[in-house]
Each structure stands twice: as structure tokens, then as C-alpha cells.
């Protein structure tokens, strides 16, 4: 069997999602760190893996995949994680919730985007992060009102939205964004934090 290799950066929220899913699936994997702060993502060997120069990249089952949502879908399909409901309406609503984080919020808080917008200077960069992460989480909190947190984002079992939310909350902590007015989000986080798959994926636990 081919080894599973994750090209990873600990603080990448996209990579963080994939680490959670791999842990939920009970898969052992090798991590190859791509240091974004040292521009290793622009090295020819990484661009050969990911022409965009992004992480994560996952080698699994003799295939190579990029883009965290595509990777999560593959793991969901092949490892039976049941991250999204089978019912088309419930599935679309759950995916819409996850995409608030993964498609709308995450890209504008990517380092390359925020640094280009702010010149990487303070306090402009922190203000950028606080505005976009704060607004995104406020919208996410409102959308959670359409689901029963019992105890996860969309019910009594883990879903795609949980895997997208928790890594973004790590970023919220880093940039000093309070969660006091977001009780639904706080409740979901507490439930996820109790699970080993999430704890082991935390950036502070990576090599």
C-alpha cells in the first residue's frame, strides 16, 4: 500500500481541516512541512505538486490531490466519514454553511492576500484580519441559528462545517477576535475540542 503523505503547514487552516479528517478516518500519514513564511511554497519542487503554490497537497491511494474541500470530499467518499447529509436539501444547506468559512472567509485572510492589501504592515494587517474574520464569524453564528447544535454545527454528528470552523477559530484567537457574542460557535468549539482527532490536528501539536 502506498504511504499517505500530507504536504502541510501547521498554521494553514486548509491543511488543518485535512489533518482533522485524516485523524477522523484513523489514517496514519507522513507530514512534509512546506514553510510558507520562508516561501517554500514557491520552490520548483512544490510548484510541481501544486502549481498554485498552496498547501495542502495529499498523496493517497496512488493519487495526488490539491484543494482542501476536494480532499475532504475524497476522504468522505472513500472512508465513510459522512461529513455531509445524503438528503439533497440538508446537504446543500450544510455545504453552504461550510463554504461561508472555506470559500468566502478563508481566501481573503490568506497571507498572500492580506499582505498584498496591507503591505504586511501593522496595524493595518491586524485590522484587516479582525474585520474579515469578525464579520465572517458573525454571519456564521447567524446561520447556525437554522440548525440545532446537538452539539455540532448541524446536529448530533460531525460535519463539514465543523472541520472548516475550528481551524478558523484558531486564526480568530491569533488575531485577537473575541467570541463573547457568538455562543453557538463557542458551544461547537467546546464539543470539537473534546475529540482527539481535533486535538491532534491542532497547529501546536505539529512537529
Strand and helix layout:
Layout: E1 5-8, H1 13-24, E2 30-33, H2 44-49, E3 57-60, E4 63-66, H3 68-79, H4 88-108, H5 111-118, H6 124-144, H7 160-174, H8 183-193, H9 196-201
Parallel strand pairs: 1-2
Antiparallel strand pairs: 1-3, 3-4
Helix pairs in contact: 1-3, 1-7, 4-6, 4-7, 5-6, 7-8
How would you concisely characterize the structure shown here?
The chain has 207 residues and is α+β, with helices and mostly antiparallel strands.
**Helical segment count:** 9
The helical percent reads 40-55%
Count of strand segments: 4
**Average pLDDT:** 95
* Poorly predicted ranges: none
What about the largest sheet? 4 strands, mixed
Structural class: alpha+beta
> Order of strands side by side in the largest beta sheet?
2-1-3-4
Strand content: 5-15%
What oligomeric state do the depicted chains represent? single chain
The secondary-structure element order is EHEHEEHHHHHHH
**How far is it from the N-terminal to the C-terminal residue, by CA?**
24 Å
Radius of gyration: 17 Å
Q: Using the alpha-carbon principal axes, give the shape.
A: globular
Amino acid at each position: 500500500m502506498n504511504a499517505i503523505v500530507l504536504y502541510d503547514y501547521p498554521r494553514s487552516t486548509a491543511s488543518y481541516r485535512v489533518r482533522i479528517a485524516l485523524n477522523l478516518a484513523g489514517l496514519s500519514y507522513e507530514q512534509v512541512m512546506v514553510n510558507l513564511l520562508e516561501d517554500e511554497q514557491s520552490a520548483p519542487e512544490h510548484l510541481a505538486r501544486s502549481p498554485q503554490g498552496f498547501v495542502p497537497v495529499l498523496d493517497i491511494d496512488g493519487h495526488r490531490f490539491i484543494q482542501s474541500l476536494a480532499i475532504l470530499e475524497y476522504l468522505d467518499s472513500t472512508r465513510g466519514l459522512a461529513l455531509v447529509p445524503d438528503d439533497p436539501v440538508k446537504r446543500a444547506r450544510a455545504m453552504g454553511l461550510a463554504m461561508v468559512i472555506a470559500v468566502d472567509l478563508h481566501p481573503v485572510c490568506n497571507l498572500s492576500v492580506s499582505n498584498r492589501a496591507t503591505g504586511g504592515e501593522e496595524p493595518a494587517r491586524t485590522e484587516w484580519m479582525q474585520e474579515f474574520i469578525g464579520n465572517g464569524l458573525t454571519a456564521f453564528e447567524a446561520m447556525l441559528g437554522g440548525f440545532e447544535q446537538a452539539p455540532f454545527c448541524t446536529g448530533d454528528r460531525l460535519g463539514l462545517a465543523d472541520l472548516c470552523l475550528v481551524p478558523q477559530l484558531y486564526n480568530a484567537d491569533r488575531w485577537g477576535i473575541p467570541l463573547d457574542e457568538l455562543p453557538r460557535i463557542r458551544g461547537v468549539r467546546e464539543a470539537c475540542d473534546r475529540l482527539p482527532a481535533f486535538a491532534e490536528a491542532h497547529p501546536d501539536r505539529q512537529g
